Amino acid sequence: MWHITMQYIPYNTDVAFLRIKQDYISSAYYRLAFFIHAYTAILTLAAGFTQFSGRIRQQYPVIHRWSGYIYLLIVLFLAGPSGFVIGIHANGGWTSQLGFCLLALFWMYFTARAWQAARKKSWLLHRDFMIRSFALALSAITLRMWKYAFVALFSPRPMDVYRVVAWLGWCLNLLIAEWIIFQLHKKRI
Fold first, then answer.
1. Which of 10, 13, 83, 106 is least crowded, fewest Cβ atoms below 10 Å from its Cβ?
2. Which range marks the domain in which residue 49 is found?
């Protein structure tokens, strides 16, 4: 993910994914949304990984809390909304657009619910919603893995790939998150 993000630094509109988005890149709002998303979404991965370390939570609660705030602010005010804007213009037509827009909305919703639970000191609910939220953050990675796998195995048309990974990139992650949450609750019984 770091390598992908670094392709756009310094501000570069004629590289990688943006080469197939030239119809939109001339639009100021799309360009702004894309670069906000590209430059900030990667930070949610770094912040998110620290959230699930029991050692950090117990020995360095300030780091847990502050990286959680960073994650929250980026998802709710930068990466989530910009991902929604990018989703509106996703390749592959309305099915891809719907998949990516729902991804952005669910990501913001689960993150907001995790924050709400933390404010109420409902730690188990907070954990459950953060697992869901981070599963959706990880879609940045799984989407690309699925894309490469589909292309290597089936050689489909590019727009067909977008239609599939727009959903598979996050729906499977969410199913796995729900299984993890179920297992964690089962252990508590």
1. 10
2. 2-188
